[in-house]
Amino acid sequence: MYDYVSFIDEFSRKTWIYFLKIKDEIFSKFKEFKALIEKHTEKKIKTFRSKNGGEFTSDEFNELCRDSWIKRDFTTPYNPQQNGVTERKNRMIMEATKAMLHDQDLSMHLWAEDARKTVYEHNRTPHRAFENKTPKEVLYGKKTEVNQLRIFGFPNVHTHPKEKKDEVRSFRKERYICGI
Fold first, then answer.
1. Which of 20, 41, 146, 158 could serve as 25's disulfide partner, Cβ 3.0–4.6 Å?
2. Could you tell me the CATH number of the domain that includes residue 114?
C-alpha cells in the first residue's frame, strides 16, 4: 500500500487525495493543492489543520503559510479526535478501498486507483447534511454529473469517433505485427 495525504474542505467535506512515495513530499503536494484551490474556487485557504508531525512543521511549510496568511491549527499529540473529520474520512477511504478490492477479487497493487475512485465517488455522493447536495456541488455551486460512474473492476468499453476508427485499426495491426 501507498502513503497518501488527504486534504478536506471543512465546509463542503470535498476531499482531495495525493499519493506519496515518501512523507517529505507532503509539502510539495500541499503547494499543488493550494494552487488548485486558488485557481478553481478563486478563494484562499484561511486555516490549515493538521497533526503536529514533522512533515507539517518544517520551516518551509511554516514560511509558506505565513506568507500566504494561512492560520495553522495543530492537533495535540496523541489526540487525533481533534481532527475527527480527517480521521473519519481517512478511515472511510481505507475501508471502502479494501472492501472494493476484496469484492472484485482484485490485487492490492490496484489500491491507489481504488482509493482515488473512492474519493471521486464520495465527492459526488449526496449527503443529508447538505440537503442532499454533494460535497462537490456545495463547494463549486454546480450540479454534479454522475452518468460516467462505473463499477470498480469491471472492464470499460472504449468507443472511437467514426473518423478515427481506421486510424485505431491500423494502430492495432501495427501493434500486433510488432509483437507489443
1. 20
2. 3.30.420.10
